[in-house]
Design brief:
eight-stranded mixed beta sheet, 14 strands, 9 helices, globular, about 300 residues, alpha/beta
Length: about 300
């Protein structure tokens, strides 16, 4: 070995030694990772993500991956000539659409992620909420205010559901077999219908039911930003609620924070909202002193 390589080797050893206390903290603990956004469409980012998940599992962590797939669903609907209707900014999932949602989420995307993890030496199994009645969903509606009359109206979103019950038995069995669950947010209702569930909400329900050590929400933004658009590194649940109330947090970040609060109230130690486009974001958050994104705790 040449002397030129020694500094790099020493740096790598130092990084590994710094990771040790973090590895001990998460040893045999469940970490739920919601994977979505544009990172899913980038091959290099997908490979980094798969490497992170496999390394965590090898280090004694029990990772569970929950994935989304909105852009992929949209492209498939366009390809098949199925026009989407939007109400209150949300896609209405009719009978034709929910078939495509299930095909894309529980089929192509789910197996693609399983393949990425397998390519990095991991052993993953792809499931959706319908498997083993893991997640039972309930039809949801939303309200919107008519811009002319200012009267609130109930919006029917079709086959869109929220998790009502999580049966952890199948996940416990998969984790006991030292496999990595990769979950698509599709669930059956008690009425037998298939429901499309928001991936963040699905991940929060899974994390809460399993009392996960961490829930990581990988998004397309750095985390929660203050009024000056600066990253907030840590928040309590009360502080997070206050940011919604005073208008600092708006739009799509509101349901993400509501998911964080839901999970924490059900026993998750902390939730992190972070940028999934950052290379090896999961490892940075869990196994270094630097962290990534905004951590929310009780």
């Amino acid at each position: 070995m040449s002397d030129m390589n020694l500094p790099d080797v020493h740096t790598q050893a130092e990084v590994l030694s710094q990771a040790l206390p973090h590895m001990q903290r998460y040893d045999q603990e469940i970490v739920v990772v919601k994977y979505g956004g544009h990172a899913m469409g980038n091959k290099a980012a997908a490979e980094d993500f798969a490497e992170d998940i496999v390394l965590l599992e090898q280090a004694g962590v029990k990772p569970i991956v929950v994935h989304g797939g909105g852009p992929q669903i949209g492209r498939m609907l366009d390809k098949l000539g199925i026009k989407s209707e939007f109400k209150a900014g949300l896609r209405v999932t009719d009978a034709a659409t929910v078939e495509i949602v299930e095909m894309v989420l529980a089929g192509s995307i789910n197996k693609q992620i399983v393949g990425w993890i397998s390519a990095e030496g991991g052993k993953a199994v792809g499931l959706c909420g319908k498997d083993g009645n893991m997640v039972v969903a309930e039809k949801v509606t939303r309200t919107m205010t008519d811009p002319d009359s200012q009267i609130e109206q109930v919006v029917d979103l079709g086959f869109v559901g929220d998790p009502k019950h999580v049966n952890r038995d199948i996940l416990d069995a998969v984790l006991k077999a030292e496999l990595i669950p990769v979950l698509a947010p599709v669930a059956a209702g008690r009425d037998g219908a298939t429901y499309n569930v928001n991936a963040d909400t699905f991940a929060g329900a899974i994390a809460g039911a399993l009392k996960a050590k961490r829930l990581l929400l990988l998004t397309d933004v750095p985390g929660v930003l203050d009024k000056d658009k600066q990253l907030i590194q840590e928040l309590s649940v009360d502080e997070a609620r206050a940011l919604i109330a005073d208008g600092t947090v708006t739009g799509g970040m509101i349901p993400k924070i509501e998911t964080c609060i839901y999970a924490i109230e059900r026993g998750v130690e902390a939730v992190v909202i972070m940028d999934g486009k950052v290379p090896h974001a999961v490892l940075l958050e869990l196994l270094t002193d630097h962290g990534a994104g905004t951590l929310i705790r009780g």
